Structures are given as structure tokens and as C-alpha cells.
From TrEMBL:
Matches recorded under InterPro entries: DUF1491 (IPR009964)
Protein name: DUF1491 domain-containing protein
Length: 109
């Protein structure tokens, strides 16, 4: 199976968010080809959730799971720590009061 480059996936994700009128922007530009992607959902009430892709060794399935959830400052600290560990990391921030991130939609899961 052919994998999409990180940059291609990020651009497609941002386009899908724009189509739904959900503001989002790139906080950290990682490696264009193989950088991991982390998505931070900011609900604009002081709370946030950070998601990252996880690989299930038993099923071979890749899915989005929570990395951190709670006070936005604490979530930002977790995101920052990930960035220190992985310099190729992409960080996308989504801002939506309704908590929409679209990561569970077909093609993004």
C-alpha cells in the first residue's frame, strides 16, 4: 500500500476543515515526507485535546487516539514535549467551540 506524504495529508486535512468552516493552522511544520502529525483541538474555553496516530500491532490498524486532554496549558506542554522528542513532528491546531476535528471521518481515520 502506498502511503501519503505528511505534507500531502496535512494539506488535504486543512482543506477539509476549511470546507466545513473550521479554523485550523500549522503550528509546527514537520518533515514533508515522513513527519508524524499531531492535531490539537482547542475548544476556545481554556480546554484542549491533542490527538496522535497510533498503530495497533494486533490488527495492523492505524487510528487517532488522545495524547492529552484538559487544560489548554497542560495540553500545550504535552505537545511541546512531543516536539522536543520528534523534530520532524507536524502540529496542527484546530479551533472549534463545538469540538469538531473530523479525524473520525472516512479518509482521515
Amino acid at each position: 500500500m502506498t502511503r501519503l506524504t505528511a505534507e500531502f495529508w496535512v494539506q488535504a486535512y486543512l482543506a477539509r476543515l476549511r470546507f466545513q468552516e473550521i479554523p485550523a493552522f500549522v503550528v509546527s511544520h514537520g518533515d514533508d515526507t515522513a513527519g508524524a502529525v499531531l492535531v490539537k483541538l482547542n475548544t476556545l474555553d481554556g480546554q484542549a485535546v491533542a490527538f496522535h496516530r497510533s498503530y495497533d500491532l494486533m490488527s495492523g490498524e492505524r487510528k487517532w487516539v488522545e495524547l492529552a486532554n484538559g487544560d489548554e496549558r497542560e495540553v500545550d506542554a504535552s505537545v511541546c514535549k512531543q516536539g522536543e522528542f520528534d523534530p520532524d513532528l507536524w502540529v496542527i491546531e484546530v479551533e472549534d467551540r463545538q469540538g469538531r476535528h473530523l479525524l473520525d471521518e472516512p479518509g482521515l481515520e
